[in-house]
UniProtKB/TrEMBL annotation:
GO terms for molecular function: acyltransferase activity, transferring groups other than amino-acyl groups. This is Alanine acetyltransferase. Residues 33-190 form the N-acetyltransferase domain. It holds the Pfam family Acetyltransf_3. It comes from Filimonas zeae. InterPro entries: Acyl_CoA_acyltransferase, GNAT_dom, N-acetyltransferase. CDD domains: NAT_SF.
Length: 203
């Protein structure tokens, strides 16, 4: 992975940070899954995911109210990818690549630290099948081996035990617990921070 001079430190010596390119978009495959870029044609599936109170229960973002919300969401993601600010895949079954059953991506890049946050979401009808673990491993492999990340973090609601299990099975370590540090929709929430270093990743 190439690097590019970005800014200087106090001594005037150039520091380097990740130089990323997602063109052409990297599709990822696993034995069961195809991870690809979202398109306008995915609007109905993405609307279901982002408007479902159960699926979005632990994600502090407003529920989509209509397809216009979802179309704006797709545009925001694809603009972020074009600007190399994030990368986001929709999760599909390899035999049904037109149907979106989840999402996963590096949603916050910290290029100067070779670090990014991973986030994910799965259709309620596909839980308990190891699908998110399979998708996560594909994304981590791409992040560490192609993007050149040194570490990946995940930030979750500690009450989300299913997400914690995915991360821990994937090798992540819980390295922080912050009490009522996040305010959303009139309520304070606790936050758990997990991380995984490149040298710790065992696909």
């Amino acid at each position: 992975m190439p690097y590019t001079p970005s800014h200087t430190n106090r001594t005037g010596v150039y520091l380097r940070m990740l130089e990323l390119s997602f063109t052409p978009f990297p599709q990822l495959t696993t034995p069961r899954l195809l991870l690809r870029q979202q398109t306008v044609a995915d609007k109905h599936d993405l609307f279901y995911l982002r408007s479902h109170p159960g699926i979005m229960h632990f994600i502090p973002r407003p529920l989509h109210q209509n397809l216009d919300d979802t179309l704006q969401f797709i545009e925001m993601l694809n603009t972020g990818i074009a600007n190399r600010e994030l990368i986001h895949w929709v999760i599909t079954l390899a035999q049904q690549p037109e149907r979106v059953i989840g999402c996963i991506g590096f949603v916050r890049m910290k290029k100067e630290h070779y670090r990014s946050e991973v986030g994910y979401l799965l259709h309620d009808g596909y839980r308990g099948q190891g699908i998110m673990q399979e998708a996560l491993q594909a994304v981590l492999h791409y992040g560490f081996n192609t993007m050149g990340l040194h570490s990946v973090e995940a930030v979750i609601d500690p009450a989300n035990t299913a997400s914690a299990a995915v991360l821990e099975k994937g090798g992540f370590t819980r390295e922080g617990y912050f009490r009522e540090d996040f305010f959303y929709n009139g309520k304070f929430y606790d936050t758990a921070f997990y991380s995984l270093l490149a040298r710790e990743h065992r696909p």
